[in-house]
């Protein structure tokens, strides 16, 4: 988990419940459902962080304002927790790279990564009729989901919709949420927004780590090409003095 102060557990359950206008028993229920993950003191007392408070307020918004059922809320909060964990992974990876740089010092450079690498899952290949058949939906349903911004297919040069493997995965997820879990469209919108955010965060994390690795690799290469201190001293001293001739 990120070391940010938002994640520091500070509020006991009675204070947390008051802050979000809920009964403490409701907070215990949400914890059993895995919607919230409070910390624990050494005496096993529940302690809630600012981030937990934000999550509880989000649960209240989803249930009271948007009418999302508990199954939908569980999906939303699972994605929220994944985003939190991803931030923690990013910070841990940066620390690991910094430690590796210190360990390697002026030894061989870090391996460089491929530039401009694109996930093949994001390549738009399926026209709408094929995409609809793959997910067992009507093409009009796919157009509706696009208008609702639940899905964002690519376009060919002739403006034909083209769906990627990732789009197909997202459409199957929408069908699971609506048909199997009974999540309403407002809940699906929240879940898919978070899925897109999570995909983008993962991509940014990978890109940032690659950039840092490349930057460290370049620095280490420059260090290896610097002249040694001994060579620098010889250069500063200039050429050796010529012996003095004894002939008149």
TrEMBL record:
GO terms, molecular function: DNA binding; DNA-binding transcription factor activity
Does DNA-binding count among this protein's keywords?
Answer: yes
**Record domain HTH merR-type: where:** 10-79, 125-194
Keyword Cell division listed? The answer is: no
The protein's superkingdom reads Bacteria
The ranges of region (Disordered) come to 223-248
Do you know which InterPro entries this protein is assigned to? DNA-bd_dom_put_sf, MerR-type_HTH_dom, MerR_fam
Q: Which keywords belong to this entry? A: DNA-binding
PANTHER family associated with the record: HTH-TYPE TRANSCRIPTIONAL REGULATOR YFMP, REDOX-CYCLING DRUG-SENSING TRANSCRIPTIONAL ACTIVATOR SOXR
NCBIfam families from the entry?
heat_HspR_dupli, HeatShock_HspR
Q: What is this protein called?
A: MerR family transcriptional regulator
Q: Which organism is the protein's source?
A: Deinococcus radiopugnans ATCC 19172
């Amino acid at each position: 988990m990120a070391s940010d102060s938002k994640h520091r557990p500070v509020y006991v359950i009675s204070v947390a419940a008051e802050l979000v206008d809920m009964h403490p028993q409701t907070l215990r229920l949400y914890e059993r459902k895995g919607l919230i993950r409070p910390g624990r003191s050494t005496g096993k007392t529940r302690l809630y962080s600012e981030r937990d408070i934000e999550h509880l307020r989000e649960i209240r918004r989803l249930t009271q304002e948007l009418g999302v059922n508990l199954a939908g809320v569980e999906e939303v909060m699972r994605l929220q927790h994944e985003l939190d964990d991803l931030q923690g992974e990013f910070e841990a990876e940066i620390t690991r790279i910094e430690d590796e740089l210190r360990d390697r010092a002026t030894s061989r450079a870090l391996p460089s990564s491929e530039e401009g690498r694109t996930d093949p899952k994001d390549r738009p290949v399926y026209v709408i009729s094929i995409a609809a058949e793959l997910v067992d939906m009507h093409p009009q349903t796919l157009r509706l989901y696009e208008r609702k911004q639940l899905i964002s297919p690519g376009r060919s040069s002739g403006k034909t919709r083209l769906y990627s493997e990732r789009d197909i995965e997202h459409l199957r997820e929408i069908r699971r949420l609506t048909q199997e879990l009974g999540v309403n469209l407002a809940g699906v919108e929240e879940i898919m927004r978070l899925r897109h955010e999570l995909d983008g965060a993962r991509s940014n994390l990978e890109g940032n780590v690659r950039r840092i690795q490349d930057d460290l690799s370049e620095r280490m290469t420059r260090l290896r090409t610097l002249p040694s201190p001994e060579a620098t001293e010889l250069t500063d001293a200039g050429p050796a003095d010529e012996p003095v001739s004894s002939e008149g």
